TrEMBL record:
Family per similarity comment: Belongs to the enoyl-CoA hydratase/isomerase family.
Official protein name in the record: Enoyl-CoA hydratase
Superkingdom in the source lineage: Bacteria
Matching Pfam families: ECH_1
Lineage: Bacteria, Bacillati, Actinomycetota, Actinomycetes, Mycobacteriales
Species for this entry: Nocardia callitridis
Alphabetical list of NCBIfam families matching this protein: PRK08290.1
Transmembrane segments: none
Amino acid sequence: MYIRYEVADRIATISLNRPEAANAQNSDLLDELDAAWTRAAEDEDVAVIVLRAEGKHFSAGHDLKDGRWPDSKKITLEWIYRHETRRYLEYCLRWRNIPKPTIAAVQGRCIAGGLMLCWPCDLIVAADDAAFSDPVALMGIGGVEYHGHTWELGARKAKEILFTGRALTAEEAEKTGMVNLVVPRDQLDTETRALAANIAEKPAFGLRQAKRAVNQTLDVQGFYAAIQSVFDVHQTGHGNALSVSGFPILVNLDEMKSKIK
C-alpha cells in the first residue's frame, strides 16, 4: 500500500507512503491516491481533506521506471497519451474540483509531478525546508501534464523555473502566492491540522460554494482550456524524445536520481 488514509475530527488525512523512493509516483500510488480522494469526497463525516507525505521529501515526481510502462522497444506515443490522460490530467482536474476544502502539507523536495499533487489543493502549507522545482525542459520536454505554472507563479517566474530548472524556496513560493503559510519543519503536521480544524468548523455549504466561485472564476479566465492545450504540447515533447532516443524523455535517469538526496 502506497497510501495511508485516516479520519479524525472531520478531517481526512491522506499520506503518501513511499518514503524509500522519495514518494515517487508509480501507477499504483496514483491509483490508490485517486481512490483515497474519492473516498474522502464521498464521506459525509469529512469536512476537510489534508494531503501529506511520509519521509524527508513530499514527492520526487513521476517514477520513470514504473513497472507499468511497456518495454522501451514497444512504447508508443499513443500509449503515453492514454496513460497520462488518465493518471495525470484527469486525476488532477478531479482532485481540484472536489467540493470540499483541501490542504497540501509539503516538506523537502517537490519536483515536477510533485507539483501535480499539491497544486490541485486549495491551500498549501510548506515546511521551511520545502523546495519546488520542475526540470522538464532539462529533460528535453516542453509543456507539462498539468500546467498550473502560469497561474501559480505568474508568467515570468513560471518561465524562470522552467528555463533554469532551479528550485523555489518555501519563502519564494509564499511571495508568489503559491504557498499560503511557511512553518518550521517539525511543526508542519501540527500547523496544517490546526488550519484544517479551523476550516472544518465553518458551514460546509458555504465552503463548497466559495471554492466553486474561485475555481469557476479561474476557468472563465482560461485555466481549464490552458491545462488541456498545454497537455497536448507536452505530448509533442514525448514524441520528439521517442523519435530521437526511443525513450519518452531525453535524460539520464541515474543522473537525475543522484540530484535527489
